[in-house]
Amino acid sequence: MEKNNLKKGVSLYLIVVIISVLLAVSLNAGSLIVGGAKIIKGAADSVKAFCAADTGIEEALYNAKNGTCNNIVNGIVGGDAKYVYSVNVSYTGADCTDTGTTIQSTGEFKPGATSSSKRKISITY
């Protein structure tokens, strides 16, 4: 009768070990999925910030083509305050249409009050 009781104890021990291993694997997989989702969200916000910076560059190039070399400060993309850019134009010639002009644009995407992504683009011609 003692051998049967030992066998029952071993099977209970094996069940607890198997359930523990499955729980650990499940929690680890869940942690990886949540971490990956955060990285993907950050990448999407980064692309939006890059697009805002690109908008600043395009506006500065358009203004330079029309002979306006002033800096563009705190532009808003499409009227949405979440997409902001700031442009700095510096030139060594007579104006921004000469060679040696550098345009630097910083784009920022602010999806919430506490988070933001920033990207900077610089071109020289």
Task: Write the SSE topology.
Elements: H1 2-65, E1 75-76, E2 83-90, E3 102-109, E4 117-124
Antiparallel strand pairs: 1-2, 2-3, 3-4
Any overview of this molecule?
Helices cover 51% and strands 21% of the residues. By secondary structure, the chain is of the alpha+beta class. The chain has one domain. The longest helix has 64 residues, at 2-65. The chain is rod-shaped, with a radius of gyration of 29 Å. The model has no long low-confidence stretch (mean pLDDT 84).
Provide the residue-averaged pLDDT.
84
Structural class, from secondary structure content?
alpha+beta
* Uncertain stretches of 5 or more adjacent residues: none
Ends distance: 92 Å
* Radius of gyration, CA atoms, in whole angstroms: 29 Å
The string of secondary-structure elements, in order, is: HEEEE
- Walk across the major sheet and give the strand order: 1-2-3-4
Q: Total number of β-strand segments?
A: 4
Structurally, the number of domains stands at 1
Q: Note the main sheet.
A: 4 strands, antiparallel
Number of helices: 1
Which percent range describes the beta-strand content? 15-25%
How much helicity do the residues have? 40-55%
Could you say which overall geometry the principal axes of the C-alpha atoms support?
Answer: rod-shaped
Supply the key terms.
125 residues; 51% helix; four-stranded antiparallel sheet; single chain; alpha+beta
